[in-house]
Queue: 4 jobs
Job 1
Amino acid sequence: MRNAGTRAIRTMMAGLVAAAFVAVPALPATSAAEPRAKVSVTVIHAKKGPPHLHDALKPMWDTLRQSFGDKFSYFEVLDTASRQVDAGSPVEVRLPNGQRFAAIYNGVTPEKGLLRINVEMDDFRTKVRIHDGGVFFQAGRKHEGGILVVAVRAALLKD
Amino acid sequence: MFGMRKRKAMLAADGVLPRDALDAAGKAEAGRFEALSAQVREAEGARAQAAGMPDFDAMFAGVEARVEVLRREAAEAGARGWLPGLLGSRPLWVLAPAGAMVMALALGWALLSGGEAAPDNTCFVDSYDADKGTILVDQDLDDPTQATVIWVVDEEEG
């Protein structure tokens, strides 16, 4: 009688362990597993002409100057969007030509913790990985005697 | 530039060379330099006073005195040998805490400045695609401060 009870308990325990092994990998990869991030998109009108730098661009002037300082001297902010997002969520702006520009945060890489960012603009698509707090630019669309420069910055949220 | 007689006259006017070392012409020239020097000092002093500038003569006298003290200390240190000269009269137990403080300051600076370091803008472009236009990736992976620019250039019209 006692042996039968012990056997039943063992069988039940084994079943639970097996169920756990099967169930855990089957759970969907929720966004909660990925850290949240703050993604900022800034639409800049860059052109030649009298030197001008919008106040909001002063913190990124060194980076802007390195990339565009030899081509343009006038930098004005046309639109900006900044949101704290979960993995898979886009941060969008509308460009002056009516096109939608979206930067989609897609979580971090397991090895180096780089942030995966997808960019969508009209028929253009790109996938990049950047460091925490890093910035990159998409540029080239013509606009009012200059071009549109879109700065995308992403940083992990520290809890 | 200047002849030897003029140079001697200038030195005599400044009191560096005894007036007796000059001949009559030299003494006369030294007198002229003295008068010129006095006029310049007088004019400069009035200008400096009007502008509220510090007394240059007093400042320079202080510098000369300090240079003389340093020269004397260096000579004394050289006479004592290189290690005592380096340490001066300060014993090691005084220097050790000072050294520890310098190390602590250096460490603190390194830690604090590390927190304010510029972000790493290195960007790895895994893929890109567009139906029209030209795509160009402008980046320098050796310079993490430089941001990558993904150019999407419209095709020329017409």
Job 2
Amino acid sequence: MGNINDYRIKPRQVADKAVQGALQEAIGLALDVETEALRHNTQTFNQNRYIAVQKIDDYEDLKQRARNIKEESIADLPDLIGTLTKTIEGRGGHVFLAKSRTEATGYITNVCLSHRARLVVKAKSITSEEIGLNHELENAGIEVAETDLAEFILQVSKEQPSHIVAPAIHRSRETISELFKRNFNTDLPLETGEELTRFARDILRKKFLSADIGITGANLIAADEGAILLVESEGNIRLTSQLPAVHIAVAGIEKIIRRTKDFGTFIELLAASGTGQSLTSYTSILEPPVELPVLNLNGRTDSKREFHLVLVDNGRMQMRDDEDLRETLFCIRCSACMNSCANFQAVGGHAFGGECYTGGIGGAWTLGTTGNIDKAKFAELCTGCSRCVPNCPVKIDIPGLNAVLKSRLMEHSGGPSFQQRFFSDFSKSADIAAMAPGLVNWISNLPPTRAIMEKVIHIDRRRKIPPFANRTLSKQYLQYRKADYPAQGGETTSSVVVFADVYTNFNNPGVGMSTVRVFDRFGIPVKLSRVFDDGRGAQSQGLLKDASKRAGELAPYLVDLIGGGDEIIVMEPSVLSMFRRDYRTLLSNEPQFERIAAHSFDPFEYLEKLTAEGHLEINRHLNITSWNTRHIFYHAHCQMKTIGAGNSAVDFFSRLRFTVDTSNVECCGMAGSFGYKKEYYGVSKRVGDDLIDQIKNALAADPAAVILASGTSCREQIRSELTVPVYHPMEFLEQLLA
Amino acid sequence: MTGVTEQTEYSADLAGVFVESVRNLGATVEVIKKSPETLCVSLQKATDGEQFVLLADPDFLEPELFDLFRQDKRVVSQPTKEQLSTIHAGVTDAFCGVASTGSVCVSVSKNLTSPASLLTRKHIAVVDAGTIVQRPRDVFSAGSFSMKNLNRSFSFITGPSATADMGPLVIGVHGPGELHIILLSGRDPHGV
């Protein structure tokens, strides 16, 4: 790994993703010099978050309450702005509603000039980055001292934040040490975390003691009492807001909620979701101007405290009117969507981010506050893996927002690219390929073909194209029913239909057949559905209208089957996730969605359900004592974990007395088509490293360990690095039954 | 059981959780009987070796509780600017404790509570065990919060100030690096 201090590109140069080539350059920068620190830091936050939210005994309820409060607040926003203004002005404070960034910076600059301020201390505020505040103040001859240590580092390195909560998360102690040694003339040792912290603290303490004005952001603002919530660990926000006599708080209008009392709902969620703490060191609720006497430690003779609240619109009211973007305004900027994102863990916010907003939610913020969709191009780094969804404290459908952004990017660029068309219409290509799969497989892996594919549809030639099966699942199933095993009535009352999704039908018929044979063996009446494109391909490319159309065509068929008493068994997790999550928006038919969602199962989820209901006794069918290992390593597909089906296979095999180790990665990095794209091959492979390392460790402990993965693309990702067999859990179960 | 007994039992339980939570934060905590004498002994021990101690007038506890300690020559109650920015140890009261997180709630008021808990390297917070609530959100519905005479600007202080911005976790940044909490109990403290 190279050194960020000497790297040929500076993060600022690639911050604006509307610039041609910036996204690719930024990905290169991140993979070359940032991944190691990013991964360590984000994964630590992520693990701590899982532990912290577990300690909140009503976590799901609390999230719903937070969501409700935000929904109400955004609905009542104009009214709340009025109430808030009256409350604060009634207490002697000032409120300024800035329509644009220039109005906001103009007002703040004037306040500073009116106090003849020479030095402003500033606490971390992404909104102040959004409006370009430091630049404007400096232009007016005012020194700005960033006092959050991460922002202090970035002020020295002249970089933009790579993360909304920990802005210097892309830097290791070593690179900070080197940065400081180059920039400061000091004899002090600057090696350890303590030494670096003390050095920065001492510089900043002098700034605090001489600052004329303090500028903070606000995590939330309550209209009823005019209270602001400020969350931090270092103490710099308390100093910034209380030492100078003049305090300016700058915040987006979406931060306003109605009641101070409701801060209680957010403070535990915010700390747990952000840094994985029960509370950070300091959570302050201020009703400024505060009663604390003016301390004038700066030598001034200010006689009373002064408070200015600058509320920034800058596109937010338009976001509020935009049916899709409105949800972005519920964001409380905790960063859980970044820390739980496998791609973000690998590339961070310099690539997966714009000039100030980063990560999964960052694209929508960037579009909303700049009005320029091209600046939000980094939203393409959202693969829709959905791991952020259960981790968002206000339940924002972030992958859904990014699908909208991809769709708008596409419209803006004049329609879908060849690549987007190809992945969206994969079922059509597969239909044709199935006429002569051998020939297609041969041709598609010839170097000249790969060169053309790379040039035209940007499929990276280093990726093996998954072969089309000699005979599709539907053909194999017909033959099997005719010749080997006619369908029979069974022991259970309900029957199931294995859904013939495109990937299983054309590429992985073996998985589908294993399921059919296993269910037959268990005496569960099983049929195969017609082959359908469920719309996932289109959805993942941002072709939302196509995805909706396909969902709309498939839904009545599924509802009919369900009406006839069938349960739907879905082999491919990304398709199951469509039925249980994405169809809610794609179908825009809630009852139809609810019905499909309630009757769709992962095969192991269904077997576990039958077992729990007493309809199935697995041990009766199995004689597995002869199997040569008790160790299974299982990787659950990202979307499967999100819809709550990630543990079924683990529970199933554990009951058969296997020791099941599971991967703890959020996503394998392949994420359907993502890993095939030339632009993202490098990211995909880097993300995959974590999973591959964990599998290698499992194999080192037991070379006979069975490697299982539920998703087609997860298995492809594993096979791209390892030669061991990788099975769908159903394929393995069938082997056990043999 | 009478209402009073119930409340005392409940409070003792919360105090136990509180003490455990504080210790997990890397702060220290002691439980003492609520009296000027015991408090003076504890504060002297906690500030042992300090040249000066900044004592903020309490916002919530009875000022008389601190009378004995205030006679200590090192105690400064009305600091000069110079003293405010240089004294290493600060003593404040807290109007509330939170069991699940080990937080103490310190006012931002007309007194010097907030600066004494912020500008110093070592903060000693004194809190009545009877004010402890279960969870942070309970502070917003607790009686102490809605009391009219209490300034409503305050900070939850949860352990010493800390950062991981320089790589490893470092304790002690802009705020105090040491936090000691003295929990005042109306009952025999050994019961907690």
Job 3
Amino acid sequence: MSNQEMVHLRILRQDAEGAPRRWERFKVPYQPYMNVLSCLMEIQKNPVDADGRKVAPVAWDSACLEEVCGSCTMIINGQVRQGCSAMVDQLAQPIELRPMSKFPVIRDLRVDRSRIFADFRRVRAWVDIDGTYDVGPGPRYSAEVAEVRYALSRCMACGCCLEVCPNYGPQSPFIGPAAINQARLFNLHPSGGMHAGERLDVLMEEGGLADCGNAQNCVQACPHKIPLTTSLAEMMRAATRRALFER
Amino acid sequence: MAPSRASDRPRFLVVGGGLAGLMTVIKIAEAGHDVDVFSLVPCRRSHSVCAQGGINGAVNTKGEGDSPELHFMDTIKGGDFLADQPPVRSMCQAAPGLIYLLDRMGVPFTRTREGLIDFRRFGGTLHHRTAFAGATTGQQILYALDEQVRRLEAQGRVRRFENHEMVSLVRDETGRCRGIVVVDLRTMEVQAHAGACVALATGGLGLIFGKSTNSSINTGSAASIAYQQGARYANGEFIQVHPTSIPGSDKLRLMSESLRGEGGRIWVPKDRNDRRRGEDIPEGERYYFLEEKYPVYGNLVPRDIASREIFDVVVNQGMGVGGERFVYLDLTHLPPERHRKLQGVLEMYEKYIGEDPRKVPMKVFPAVHYSMGGLWVDYDQQTNIPGLFAVGECDFAFHGANRLGANSLLSCLYSGTVAGPAMIREAAGVSSAVSSALLEAECRRVEAELEWIRRLDGPENPYRLWTEMGEMMTENATVVRDNRKLQATDERLVEMMERLRRCAVLDTGRVCNHPLMFIRQLWNMLVLARVIVRGALLRDESRGAHYKPEFPQRDDARFLQHTVAEYAGGSLLSGEGAPRISYAPVDTSLIKPVLRDYSRAPEYAPPTASI
């Protein structure tokens, strides 16, 4: 074991919401194809810090492990991203892990991102279908629009765009790029678009589009390369048109 | 004392926030009833996000003469005749309508030039029958359902209990399921919830095999709990091994069947000592073993067959790429528009392997992917416990001995549309009053068990024990099975149950205590592992995903029957945990079982079978 190559980590820990924070160092045996989450899994199998002191295993969120669920978002060497797709071979060591800063920490790397879903609800991010009973085929629309919608719909509500947004945070009412992108996604659907005005009205309230400072960090942080700044611009244009001509 | 949530108005409880659970929720809420949904993670992060390739439905927009009846026939044959046929036929008949419904909900299905939903080829059929949204179809469908549930939530019909884990059923003196006990995974608070009916939509059990294509939450724990509390568990030994995945140190990532549906080809170098890079090996020196052996279905034979052939080439013939266990999955010859349709999966390969699969053949190997077996249910999706239903991967219906690709999203949705109304009907005949003493007694039992776990301070580490179990199960209970090894595996599982009782809890934290819950989950996994292994041991034949070289033929006289496991007793606190196995007849009233042959086209094949 002593000759084996080790991966060094430095993790910001917190036992509960509001509890004091502390850094702990770890070293875990290297394996091929290793990502940050497998380092955390190694700590579970041998929960001692780098000095051999017994500690509790690190708490983190995970589910899919392949960057489609958004669970394991954390700050890795200063960059917000998913732990599952952060490959050890591509990271400087010691690998520094800390929880996202824009959401309340529950324990260690786990944060409460329920605000994201509340904001999806606020912008009515759904199609108002009459019911799930059979009414035949859905509306026909072009492959081009479907492709645009697909790109927007890959948002996994991970919160990377919100973490890097200077206008989003616990003290700010700004709804953030993720929810605004959802409004565009549903406004682009033939029947979702019938209620476009309702979504725009929400985005024209306090904390809406006007609070975007155009830093454009969001589009760079998005792990799925969703054109968030295009969504912001499109929604601003639609909101301006609504303000001038439709209300 | 734990709070007990009894209420006057009947509430329906759905455990699991993936496709099957959310469809059940929608059906109940839409009918005007109140529903609570419980999920380990926010619903939007459930394992359904991992489904890539698509959803089957015979919409027949490609001029191939497809129909729900042909879809039904393909599905029954794909499952090697082990599925009860009437519900499968109903599912296939409902499929086109379900795809239209998803389209109305806004799922961004990939479309044709005319603006229609496009369909691709998938395994076990010669028709274009699979609707898809790029290569992340499950993610897109899950989001659409999550959004509809949010809409119903805004109307006050649905409450979400996300980050909650079900730890027990509440059964009354007549045996009826009257609610559940859950743990809030953040505060670790134990709560009882009364329910008019309960549906389990808790998905698969890949973690029993350690590393699989499943999410880190797929322990099968909830299904195991129901089984330990009296539910029958059927066909547990039928575990699907997907032919194409990539390695990882935390999981094995699926490389969708749609890669082959869009024209990807499987091959190995003809010369086993060939050490050139895949892209440098000329066409004539490549062995396309699936295409050679199955000229009609080619790379799109059902998954059990593809995995067995890969296993044969790599293990028995020693022809794996570079002397390892990999085969090539080659997409380099496909045009850019095909690559674009597969974008999500190709990006994943690039991220995790560091090579561009548009330019270099991918290296893949088989991985545990899906459980055909699950909780026994009747044609209303009700288990043998009155008031308890099961939907989605955790039920045993629809897929028989092998599931066809793109039928899982369909069975999840369809079973939800059946269970929702059936739960309402079932509840109508029962008094909704649940005694709070009953709920509190079950809460106290769970709390006592958790306190017992909190005091564990032995030498074993539960995570290491889990890794050991997973490696053993993958080695002995997947593609090829052998009775001596299965017997030894079962004995070691019993030892591991004892070792688990000598582990350390590792964490004394009062919030987000993962090890505390994981020890229970690991017990539940060991219990289900025994169901899988004992079922496999007793089934002396080969059928679908269950293959024993010693018994290479299907034996309908003895085994055209469902394996039914019932729990013989025991618990984490007392040890044991053995299954009692019996058999139940299969309803083959619609299609007579015949030899399952993929070497030629069926008579209903479309005139031109092309990718």
Job 4
Amino acid sequence: MLNNDHIDTLIAREIEGEITTAERAQLEDWLQQDVANRQYYEALKDTWGLAAEAYKTVPEPDVEANWQRFTRSTLDAPAPLRVVSRRNTWWRLSAAAVVVVAAAGLAFALLKGQGTTTLAAGTDKKEVVLPDGSKVFLNRHSQLSYNKDFATSSRQVTLEGEAFFEVAADAGRPFTVKAGASQTRVLGTSFVIKAYEHKTVQLNVVTGKVAFSGKDEQGALVLTAGHTAILRSNKAPQQVQNTDPNFMAWKENRLAFHKVPLYKAFTAMEDYFNVRIVVTDSSLLNIDFNGTFENPGLHELLEVISKAVDVKVTEEEEGVYRISR
Amino acid sequence: MPENAWLQKLLQEDERQFMEALFKTYFPLVCKAIYRLVPDMATAEDLAQEVFIKIWNRREQLGEVYFKAYLHRAAVNMALDHIDKNKRRGGAPQEISPAQEELVATAPVVHVKETKARIQQAVDALPEKCREIFVLSRYEEMSYKEIAQTLQISVKTVENQMMTALKKLRVSLREFLE
């Protein structure tokens, strides 16, 4: 007497087409024994046939759009890195164009001690290459540190301030960035983290994919290219709309304003040039402003604005500019 | 020239043109194979992108490859990896309860067009592992042996799960099986 499990196995093999002649004979015998056996067998075969109908209407992906995305993320990125911008000009500090770098002083410091390496950008932005080949672009007044066991089993760095990461692919050694209360586990990628003291930590994923979480990795948010998330202290990470088109301005040396109210343009400029812009007449704040500036200079840009919206710009003291009618 | 030979020739001559031809020929195949295992189009597209990024990074080692089969396999593995990672993060889709199964089975059929959708729902409602195995066998046309190797389980387990899937589907699709 054949048990049911064995019969099921025979039917499974018959469906796959891998049944042997001897097994087929056994199955035939069993089918002849009872009409109920035959019904059971037919029903399963019919189910198999019917299941072919599923997934016949799988949505068609937009191949052209996906090809464009692939081109941008992979083909047009300088190998082997995946970067957004093809221009790698951010560190080329054209003296005429970039006002802010004029500030003297120790621009960059490498501190070693207690087995910890600290890479710090002073008043200047910096590009550093980590022992594993990953590249980090540090914004001004930002610093990155890692222990001497970095890259032996895992790759862990701590960030204060703001940085753009191009992480070297290495699935065996996960790359984690601790910044403020956040942890970003990298799944092969480039992204920007902004983690200034006492401020919300913000993450922008430029290419690839990362897992973003608080100190406790539970509840990590997986983010892919083009997405942004924030972490407020003692809260769960939260995905948000990135409303700042200039989030990479400091790295790309480019400010872009498309019909933005002046107050937003001024905020971006304050960040970018490390200055303060004071506006006394609040009616000025909502005037729309347009323009894209490569390697912008502060004075040049202020002059463009003063002509475009007919305002007066005066330098009140070093690094403080007043805008008035 | 047969497609594969043509692609191989392009790969030798012009990497970029090769990539464009490969992508435009097989992106839908890759994306749909992933979608059948991970039924969310945005995720399927992301994962399909990753399949092609991997191919691009490995382009120097593709000399002997039969692209269609290679890409199909890469798509299946990418989807299974994704399911695994999700599970480890605790986001596993729960097994469907008998009550829900009943719901799938007894919802009234209105149009022929909906029949396909209902059959798909029934497959989607299978328990996780069972569904994976059924999809790989039925739609990805992999042999039990290939499935067993891919999932690192025994052929016997594959056979058992296949039968479990068919029996469950038989119940939830009984109205179409009269």
